[in-house]
Amino acid sequence: MRLHNKVIIITGSCTGIGKAIAERCVAEGAKVIVHGLEPQPGEVLVAKLGKAKARLHIEDLTANGAPQRLVEVAVTAFGKLNAVVNNAALIATSNINSTDSHLFRRMLEVNTIAPFALIKAALPYLSRTRGCVLNIGSVNAWSGEPDMLAYSVSKGALMTLTRNLGDTLHRENGVRVNQINPGWVLTEKELQNKQEQGFEEDWYATLPPAYAPAGRILRPAEIAAAAVYWLADESGPVSGQVVDLEQYPFMGRNLPKDSATLLHLLATRPVPH
Question: Active-site residue among 151, 211, 229, 248?
Fold first, then answer.
């Protein structure tokens, strides 16, 4: 087991990518703190994983003192802390015209400041175990789409945080910090979003090759498999690194030039993690 006896906090893990990471971590021998805003799916997941392997904490991470309370839940339940996975995120479409200061601040609070605050709260315990942090970003961190302005900026800031702390915390505290940037992932929320937009139930079965050369998009379990490497000791001393998880190069792509294909791509534009 690659994560034997490790204690890991996974934010935003009641559903989606976070849930898949929690399931895979337990399968690899870890104990996890499941966190999110949705009690019902969280309770179902903890019951599935077992009380000996999982605890649930429901709270908005931007609330005053929330990061400290989440860390306390882990240490009280399992006696130590080996890793933090910052997965929780606010996703909203917005561009230069529709983004106001309130939305921008909220996006940064959830996607950048809350992960920072949790790392800071967890640092004394991670230092004792020479643990690690894994931030879950997005390929949109590199520039983003016109209609994902605030979200993309928040993930870009998270990427800089990863590189900065990945250097300083590794040297000063023995704590590694890395990040994975998922592309388009078939989560429960993405299925719901597309149905609400009027797409057929099996829309993901007939995706244009420009977005899905493999004929499908990524699955949460595939992101979870990648996460285990960074949480396990086998990733060794590597720190301050960001890895994109997508089936094509996100930057410098040559998209089809015919307008019909481009219109189809825009109509099926993904809502990334």
Answer: 151
What would the two tokens of residue 5 be?
């006896």
* Token reading at 144: 């983003």
Q: Please name the residues in contact with 248: beta carbons below 8 A apart, sequence gap of 6 or more.
A: 213
* 13, 32 Cβ separation under 8 angstroms: yes
> What would the pLDDT profile of 110-160 be if each residue is shown by its tens digit?
999 999 999 999 999 999 999 999 999 999 999 888 889 999 999 999 999
At residue 109, the 3 state secondary structure works out as helix
Instruction: List phi, psi (to 5°) of 255.
Output: -75, 155
Contact by Cβ (8 Å): 133, 170: no
- Give the CA angle between residues 217, 222, 226 to the nearest 5°: 130
Q: In the chain, which residues have pLDDT < 50?
A: 259-260, 262-263, 265-268, 270-272
Q: Measuring CA to CA, which residue among 96, 91, 103, 170 is closest to residue 136?
A: 91
The whole-number pLDDT of residue 40 equals 98
248 is catalytic: no
Strand, helix or coil for residue 105: helix
Residue 21 domain boundaries: 7-267
CATH of the domain at 112: 3.40.50.720
Q: How far apart are CA 17 and CA 9, in angstroms?
A: 14
What residues are paired with 136 via a beta bridge?
A: 180
Closest CA to 228 of 22, 5, 11, 14: 22
Domain count, the chain: 1
Residue 184 located in a structural domain: yes
